[in-house]
Amino acid sequence: MGASQTVQRAEASRSALRQIERHRRLASVADLQTRMPLPDVQIRECLVATGEFLSRHRPPPEIRDKVDYRADIKGQEVTISEVRPRYDDETRKAEHPFAKARWVGTRKVWRLFWMRGDLKWHSYESFPESPNIGTLLEEVTRDPHCCFFG
């Protein structure tokens, strides 16, 4: 192996290491953002708003083992999911998230997302954000474009 090939390989290795380190730094920033808890005021607002949303939408208790809704607060996100028995094993439950609100602390607003058929979250452009999560959940209830409940 010639000297120029050795230099090229060494430079390629250094470049790969820099990319890996950059990816690790970006991943740690993303982890920090998703793990950082909501402020207490926002948590209380979430609990009240999601409680009201679920009380309006949950089915009667006698069929909740067949279909139900739940809300999960994780980091700075609130996810609303439909819960049903799995089609291949009814003893296990499958969650199908359909609405997500994310707190943007720098702007003091909630952003609304919906799950498309590609199973990726997309910004809900008709009503993209609000300072109040209850307002966003009211929009999910209205569902004028059939994005959330079909």
Structural class by sheet pairing and helices: alpha+beta
Number of domains: 2
Distance between the termini: 63 Å
Percent strand equals 25-35%
How many strand segments?
6
Main pleated-sheet profile: 6 strands, antiparallel
**Count of DSSP helices?**
3
Radius of gyration: 22 Å
Low-confidence sequence ranges: 26-34
Helix content: 40-55%
Mean pLDDT: 85
SSE pattern: HHEEEEEEH
Shape: globular
Structure, explained:
Strands 1, 2, 3, 4, 5 and 6 form a 6-stranded antiparallel sheet that branches. Helix 2 runs parallel beside helix 3. The chain has 2 domains: 35 residues; 103 residues. The protein is globular and about 75 Å long. The protein is of the alpha+beta class.
Short account of what is shown:
This protein is an alpha+beta fold.
SSE order and pairing:
Layout: H1 3-35, H2 40-57, E1 68-74, E2 77-85, E3 93-104, E4 109-115, E5 121-123, E6 129-130, H3 133-142
Antiparallel strand pairs: 1-2, 2-3, 3-4, 4-5, 4-6
Helix pairs in contact: 2-3
Features:
six-stranded antiparallel sheet, globular, alpha+beta, 3 helices
